[in-house]
Amino acid sequence: MLKPFYKPFGMAGIALGAVLAASSSIAAVSEFTLDNGLRILVKEDHRAPVVVSQIWYKVGSSYEHGGITGVSHVLEHMMFKGTRQHAPGDFSRIIAENGGRENAFTGKDYTAYYQRLEKSRLPISFELEADRMYQLRLLDEEFAKEIKVVMEERRLRTEDNPQSQTYENFVATAFQTSPYHNPIIGWMNDLDNMELKDLADWYKAWYVPNNATLVVSGDVDPKEVYQLAKKYYGKVPRGDIATLKPQREVKQRGIRRINVKLPAKLPVIYMGYLVPSLKTVSDPADAYALEVLAGILDGGNSARLPKNLVRGSQVAASAGAGYDLYSRLDTLFLFSGTPSQKHNIKDLEKSLLQQIRMTQDTLVKQQELDRVKAQVVAEKVYELDSVFYQAMQIGQLETIGIDSAVLDEYVDRIKAVTPEKIREVARKYLIDDSLTVATLDPQSMQPLPSRPAVSGGGHGR
Amino acid sequence: MVVNKYICCLLLVVVGSFTGVAGASPEIQSWTTSNGARVYYVQAKELPMVDIRVVFDAGSVRDGKQPGLSKLTNGLLTEGAGKLSADDIAERMEGVGARYGNSSLRDMAILSMRSLTDEKLLTTALDTFELLVTSPSFPQKAFERERQRLLIGIKQEKQSPRTVASKAFYRKVFQGHPYASPINGSEESVTAIKRQDLIDFHNRYYVASNALIVIVGAIDKKQAGSIADKLLSKLSAGEPAPAIDRVRQLQAPVVERISHPSKQSHIYVGQPGMRRGDRDYFPLYVGNHALGGSGLVSLLSEEIREKRGLSYSVYSYFSPMREDGPFIVGLQTKNEQAEEALKVLKETLNAYVENGITDKQLADSKKNIIGGFPLRIDSNSKITEYIAMIGFYQLPLDYLDKFNARVDAVTVKDIRDAFKRRIHSDKMVTVIVGGKPRAAEPAEISDKVKQPASR
């Protein structure tokens, strides 16, 4: 989803090691690499007789250039439209017949496909997924229909949602030269002019085993998974991977501000500071401190924004903050909110800035910090309840080029963050010169009549 | 930030489906507390955590003439309890890493929590949660604030063509029945609600004989018993909520068009569907799976999306409730092709009701439902969700064990028969939200319903 916020997920302060030692059914990650370069990571979880298989490609909207935005996502749709062996739609039908659930998703930094199955059906997933890794048939008549589906998807997610539309404009303003400028789903004008050849080129450039990571989690034996992967994916020939230009963001030199006028009922504000991610930061401690800062501000109901702005001063009907630790390129430390009835967007902006200033002027209290850490420890256990999420985390990290072993460090890294460090990163990164502000300015929602009426005014029926 | 290939259904659909993979169903133990609350417990030893869900028969169906009352009452439970303020509650729960939440639907009002089972942490979480369950204080200030926030939420709904369409759909399908009323209420009704109304509502419905508790996690039965007692023993026994009226079938087709400054039209077609525990549950559930309940491989998806590229998401589902919940077919498409999409939708639906399911479609549906059984209960949170459903609607405790066999027993004839008896294509509600206002089009849409299907 094009959801602007990341709640800090991992979180904790309690003896996690002791807690997890009791969970014998949860094992470490096993790693393999096939001769063709396909990386395989297997996470065992024997609680239920199920398996999740995810294949992650290092390609997404941030790999795209102007004119073809959205091509990664359109290609993702076309991956269900037939190969040399299989007719369009076969993939979904075969998975369904086997009791499976399947889907795919495209992000800024990845394109991923998954199946959830009863564990004995894993070979079916491997056979089909390996097949479409190198035998895709891109058919004109299928493309003609599917591009229309994607345009409907864009209307649904973005164009008919004033908040999403504002967020899209906001992001395009915050990132000028970084490819994060473009929406994942692509600009409508680019979708309108997309050609089958664009997809064919994209497929050729990125869909090779040496640009992919296979993540399997569930009730499986890693060695058997490896043998099975060798049998099916081993056949896929290694290929050349296109070169990716760095496309760094230009230096920002002052606040950027936009106002978006749309038919809507409620104003919204987005404020984003350009900050490094764990991948781009020079000292990882900075990134983890930003993660904790997001937790101090918006990690649960006891965090500062809900406590101070929603319940306390009641300037906000809602207010949030978030940080994307696992981003391939520099990212945004994001604030957003909607003012309450008695306040306007300016009041809310002022209050958010006050909250930011507070993190720079005074040290966070130890109890606040302990609470964030307690949540991190607990969430680390809770996330084990989802086989899918465990695979998702591994795939996401590997795909942006970070060893997923950092997941095991996460709790200790968070625990090491001090009040002083939080203040330091707040002062260092949350500065005006890297700030972008966007507001949604609601316009009348009364639509105009389809043909001029005598009275000149239309009315809904 | 991710763009998915499809959204299966835009609304929450709880479909119970389990198969007889040997020993795969969770073992449910159930008993009643001394003050009359039902307890459902499942042991899940693998992870050192516990999920707790308390459900009251106190959803919006109990709103009476005050739409939004149940929602506000439920929303205030976390805003003050005993001597604790909302801040205190949040700090205590989150200080031990516990999650907590509340939600309110048409039938159910829910309070839930998740905690680690470490004794010290769990004790703090339970001590706090108990106050939310038994002693909410409905502080005046918090009440005013939450009412304002609900009003903002209602405003926001008007921005969304989907929500506008969904509310209109319920209004028309259930006219005269409490299910017609929006859970969040209206600006007018919410503005009129007073704090005392919440207290009265709470006193009446948040009582032990109107409650159940689900406990799933790494605790033994004895602990589960003491948790249930601890959390619920201070509730007064009270009275179960009375039965609600049956939902009446529609007598004539209804077409509602609402203009909206959106590029897409959101279309809902449907009627009252079925209840939990309905005698036609299995034929209708399995039959709908083929029609529009199985994502991209469903008949509707094939006709609307795969063959014609008309919509990103098209689906059908039954949402069984205490009384007949809705049967809904939905899609969204750009305004210019709304009529075309609606026509294909209705033709597909009518043909299905008329001709029924094929042998192959039935076989495929069974394979998917039965083969996918383990996926439905592969986490504590999913098990908690299902057990709450089974408990609330008082389905038999062996419901999960027998589910697969019942799916397998459904025949082509059962499905055709159930759809013909229950789905009335000539008396459906059609809601279309989107695009500009247009001149009156009397019954044009309803005429199309009567046309013979083309497939």
How is this structure best described in words?
The complex is a heterodimer of chains A (461) and B (455). Helix content of chain A is 41%, strand content 19%. Chain A is built from 16 helices and eleven strands. In chain A, strand 9 and strand 10 (331-339) form a beta hairpin. In chain A, helix 2 (71-78) packs across helix 8 (196-206), helix 4 packs parallel to helix 9 (222-233) and helix 10 crosses helix 16. With 455 residues, chain B is α+β, with helices and mostly antiparallel strands. Helices cover 42% and strands 17% of the residues of chain B. In chain B, the strands form three sheets. Chain B has a six-stranded mixed β-sheet, with helices on both faces. Chain B has helices at 69-76, 86-95, 119-134, 140-157, 161-173, 187-192, 195-205, 221-232, 281-293, 299-306, 338-355, 359-371, 373-376, 380-392, 399-409, 412-422, 444-450; strands spanning 3-4, 29-32, 38-43, 49-56, 80-81, 84-85, 99-104, 109-116, 211-217, 254-258, 264-272, 314-318, 326-334, 429-433. In chain B, strand 12 and strand 13 form a beta hairpin. Chains A and B meet through helix 2, helix 3, strand 4, strand 5 and helix 5 of A and strand 1, helix 2, strand 8, helix 4 and helix 10 of B. Strand 4 (101-106) of chain A pairs antiparallel with strand 1 (3-4) of chain B, so a sheet runs across the interface.
